[in-house]
């Protein structure tokens, strides 16, 4: 999840035990997952480094401004009124590479579009994102390998950061949520483009759509950067059609029958591939140009701000 100012929110496997509802007779390469665990470790290391730099006891003084968990020394957390997620201050996050529109556009610090993915607003934010990453990412890496999953993770995170910067320009943002939503989007497009190899199509689609809908709905709560979620999801959705295409069901068996050899990929897979590439290139290019020209997305879409925070009688945005 992503919170503005605080959080951005070899072997063959032939069974259906992969929990992806594939047909039991379809063979698939099973990879060893190492990239996702490495990303988790890197995020933990970065959080420790951020807390070391934050050094709450040195910067917070006064009886009413006690650091949380002072026994941790310089690793203790900011007061809960300042950061309820048990983490560093906003100024420390900004210093360490948080996404901040003015610095990206006017100070030419475009690297923040990627660095913000490795920062988290607090221990709660970190644990939530890393548990989600383990749950989603390890299985994807086992089925598609570290190169494709790594590309989806990084490019989706970039897409989420770009859209976030276009619409939310008055505060900072951190978190891996854009990249995580990119993996969810890729899972959905992978299901659609590889439709023929699924045994329980309806169950897979309904389950995935429910998970995506719940997470996007939670993104409409206050202080949550849903634009990072949406940008990452759309980027990952397009990338799934490009990077996660599988041969049609029955293609392997048809190779032994030369008189009726089945095409490896269907025409609709080729069509989705081309459309996804065009949308991805055009979308990222146009959004990047708008961002570095200093455009404000809200001027072009008057209602879009409701996608990140929907006001109710219980809260304001």
From TrEMBL:
Function, in words: Serine protease involved in intramembrane proteolysis.
Reactions accelerated catalytically: Cleaves type-1 transmembrane domains using a catalytic dyad composed of serine and histidine that are contributed by different transmembrane domains
EC code: 3.4.21.105
Organism: Arabidopsis lyrata subsp. lyrata
TM ranges: 34-53, 117-138, 150-168, 174-195, 202-221, 227-246, 267-292
Name the UniProt record assigns to this protein: RHOMBOID-like protein
Any Pfam family hit: Rhomboid
InterPro entries, per the entry: Peptidase_S54_rhomboid-like (IPR002610), Peptidase_S54_rhomboid_dom (IPR022764), Rhomboid-like_sf (IPR035952)
Family membership: Belongs to the peptidase S54 family.
Domain of life: Eukaryota
Keyword hit for Plastid: no
GO molecular-function terms, A-Z: serine-type endopeptidase activity
GO BP annotation list: proteolysis
Subcellular location per the Swiss-Prot or TrEMBL entry: Membrane
Keyword annotations from UniProtKB, A to Z: Hydrolase, Membrane, Protease, Serine protease, Transmembrane, Transmembrane helix
Membrane topology: Multi-pass membrane protein
Record GO cellular component, one term: Golgi apparatus
């Amino acid at each position: 999840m992503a919170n503005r100012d605080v959080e951005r929110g070899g072997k063959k496997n032939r069974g259906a035990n992969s929990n992806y509802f594939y047909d039991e007779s379809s063979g698939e390469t099973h990879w060893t997952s190492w990239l996702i665990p490495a990303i988790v470790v890197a995020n933990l290391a970065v959080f420790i480094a951020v807390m070391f730099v934050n050094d709450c006891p040195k910067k917070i003084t006064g009886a009413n401004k006690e650091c949380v968990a002072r026994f941790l020394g310089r690793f203790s957390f900011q007061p809960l009124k300042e950061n309820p997620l048990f983490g560093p201050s906003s100024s420390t996050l900004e210093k360490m590479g948080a996404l901040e529109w003015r610095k990206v556009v006017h100070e030419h610090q475009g690297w923040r579009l990627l660095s913000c993915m490795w920062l988290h607003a607090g221990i709660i934010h970190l644990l939530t994102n890393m548990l989600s990453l383990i749950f989603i990412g390890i299985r994807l890496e086992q089925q598609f390998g570290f190169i494709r999953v790594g590309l989806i993770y990084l490019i989706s995170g970039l897409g989420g950061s770009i859209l976030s910067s276009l619409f939310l320009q008055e505060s900072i943002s951190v978190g891996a949520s854009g990249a995580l939503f990119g993996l969810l989007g890729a899972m959905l497009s992978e299901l659609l483009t590889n439709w023929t190899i699924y045994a329980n199509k309806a169950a897979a689609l309904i389950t995935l759509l429910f998970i995506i809908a719940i997470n996007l709905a939670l993104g409409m709560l206050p202080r949550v950067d849903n634009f990072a979620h949406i940008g990452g999801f759309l980027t990952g959705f397009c990338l799934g059609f490009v990077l996660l295409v599988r041969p049609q069901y029955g293609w392997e068996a048809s190779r032994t029958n030369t008189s009726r050899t089945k095409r490896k990929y269907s025409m609709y897979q080729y069509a989705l591939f081309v459309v996804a590439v065009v949308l991805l290139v055009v979308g990222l290019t146009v959004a990047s140009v708008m961002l570095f020209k200093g455009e404000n997305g809200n001027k072009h879409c008057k209602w879009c701000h409701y996608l990140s925070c929907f006001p109710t009688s219980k809260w304001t945005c």
